[in-house]
Amino acid sequence: MLIRFLRDLEIEIWHAMRRKLWPDTPPELEEAERLRAKPSYLIWVAEQDADIIGFLEAQTCNRADGCVSDSILYIEGWFVEEPFRHQGIGSALMQAAEEWARAHNILELGSDALLDNTISHRAHKKLGFHEVDRQISYAKKL
Ligand SMILES: CC(C)(COP(=O)(O)OP(=O)(O)OC[C@H]1O[C@@H](n2cnc3c(N)ncnc32)[C@H](O)[C@@H]1OP(=O)(O)O)[C@@H](O)C(=O)NCCC(=O)NCCS
Fold this sequence. Notes:
alpha+beta, Aminopeptidase, binds coenzyme A, five-stranded mixed β-sheet, 5 strands
């Protein structure tokens, strides 16, 4: 298994995995292409036997919920294809992002998870994250 950056020709594969993670993602490639073009946006993939089986996307920023510094790599998306889960691939993706952040003098990793995503909570804790707060989003249709 190899962790490396996404290649341009793989945008559609990444987009297909993003749609599994966020089913509301539109089928068009627009958002993926826009993010891919941002210099602050980084996308790692896990490759096994020539197949891409997971990704982690993150962006550098100077402010994020829960973070205290102004030098942050914020984890925006983290996904491993179901048959390959709980085999260390998610950890390897996160470790690659962390190593990149350290090498670029970034001071903090930030991330979030839905309240009911207990596997993600465990995975974050296993990888050294600590919980900062819990949030509920509200909306009111006008
Ligand atoms: C979260 C996710 C990326 C983790 O990837 P993964 O390859 O399964 O993670 P790892 O195998 O490296 O596991 C890391 C730790 O997570 C926890 N974990 C992972 N799968 C678990 C499971 N099925 N049950 C309980 N804990 C689990 C464990 O603490 C594990 O450490 P351990 O192996 O020493 O027990 C993966 O579960 C996933 O894609 N989930 C669906 C999408 C998602 O929820 N993404 C996160 C959004 S915030």
